[in-house]
Write a structure and sequence with these properties.
Blueprint: H1 7-29, H2 31-51, E1 56-63, H3 71-80, E2 90-93, E3 97-100, H4 106-119, H5 121-130, H6 132-135, H7 140-149, E4 150-153, E5 164-170, H8 173-242, H9 249-252, H10 255-259, H11 269-281, H12 292-304, E6 315-318, H13 331-361
Antiparallel strand pairs: 1-5, 1-6, 2-3, 4-5
Helix pairs in contact: 2-13, 3-8, 4-8, 5-7, 8-11, 8-12
């Protein structure tokens, strides 16, 4: 009890109260200093907020295309390379012809190709370089900055929505919206071109394979033809020496005379000369080549396949529109921060000024 009533313990609350009054006295005394410093910082923050060039955000939303939109692509792919498997998982794979991708539908696979092209830095650079008339000359740093300005926002794994959006931050609201819409079309065209080019490449390969097979058949027949003509010349000479002009009925009906090439003279040189004349005068040997008709039909069919000229690989649900309100700078936040910083330095200046005044007085 005595310890609680010591002079020191009784002075502590009083001393604290004096300190609070003194702090308040300093703030009131130096209020103009605090006001001026806060005002200067506020003005500076306002100048900064309104001097920063505004940035507008353009946003576009899109979805995968419907199943019927890729049916023409699928039909052409199956005509070029019918594999007899489940068409629901048959895809046109880049640099690999047709391939099967488990777990994907055709629509999802085409949409993945579009997103890959959309995110490609090469595609973005080509797009921006084509826009250089409106953008002006760009150095590497500026080009990379503009490339990174286009952002693709995909739904998360746990997100039920299938919507995919893309955003572009641009200093001009109307120009940014136009650029983003144009880029979606540009990336879509890149995907379509790559798919159609691969189909065309596959068609060219198929045609070349069949043409090589036809050339091989013709080359093989040419050798057989020369051998046949040589054989006929020999057999005709033998038949003439033996005086066999026409084959007798007994000999012509015999299996040996028909099947043994070295007994062709038994048919008589008249028949053999007719055969030789037919072979020599023939301008189209394809009629005599076994399997040539089928190959020619395959070639004609492969060349007649008409590839789709236009495809849709993405469905835009909402195009980018001109925004009236910029996303940057946050003027209110900048001014608020300026006021708080100004108030802090104003109060700090007030205490420092009071401390210096007391030191001079002593």
């Amino acid at each position: 009890m005595d310890q609680q009533n010591t002079p020191l313990s009784r002075q502590t609350p009083y001393s604290d109260e004096i300190d609070l009054f003194e702090l308040w006295y300093i703030l009131v005394k130096k209020k103009w200093l605090i006001f001026v410093v806060t005002l200067l910082f506020t003005i500076a923050s306002i100048v900064v907020a309104y001097s920063i060039k505004p940035v507008y955000k353009a946003t576009v939303h899109f979805l995968p295309v419907a199943e019927q939109d890729v049916q023409r692509l699928q039909a052409a792919a199956q005509e070029l390379d019918p594999v007899g498997q489940d068409s629901a998982t048959l895809f046109l794979g880049r640099n690999g012809g047709l391939r099967f991708v488990p777990g994907y539908s055709r629509v999802d696979y085409v949409f993945e190709l579009f997103k890959r092209d959309f995110k490609s830095r090469d595609v973005r650079q080509r797009f921006l370089l084509e826009k250089k008339e409106s953008l002006g000359e760009l150095n590497i740093k500026e080009l990379n900055r503009l490339v990174d300005a286009i952002v693709l926002n995909e739904p998360g794994k746990n997100d039920d929505q299938a919507f995919v959006s893309a955003g572009l931050h641009w200093p001009d609201a109307a120009q940014g919206a136009a650029y983003l819409n144009d880029y979606v079309e540009y990336a879509s065209a890149e995907t379509v071109d790559s798919l159609l080019n691969e189909l065309k490449g596959l068609q060219v390969i198929k045609v070349e394979v069949i043409e090589r097979q036809i050339l091989a058949l013709r080359a093989s027949f040419a050798v057989e033809k020369e051998q046949r003509l040589s054989l006929l010349d020999e057999q005709i000479a033998i038949a003439k020496k033996l005086g066999v002009k026409r084959a007798s009925e007994v000999v012509s009906d015999g299996a040996a005379s028909r099947n043994n090439p070295w007994e062709l003279y038994l048919k008589g040189y008249e028949i053999l000369e007719v055969e030789r004349e037919i072979l020599l005068s023939s301008k189209n040997d394809d009629l005599f080549i076994s399997g040539m008709g089928e190959k020619l039909q395959q070639l004609e069919y492969m060349k007649s396949i008409v590839l789709p000229e236009e495809l849709q690989v993405v469905r835009v649900t909402q195009k980018a529109k001109t925004q009236l309100k910029p996303v940057k700078p946050h003027k209110k936040m900048i001014v608020s921060i300026g006021v708080m910083i100004g108030g802090f330095f104003g109060i700090l200046g007030a205490f420092l000024s009071h401390a210096l005044s007391n030191r001079k007085a002593k």
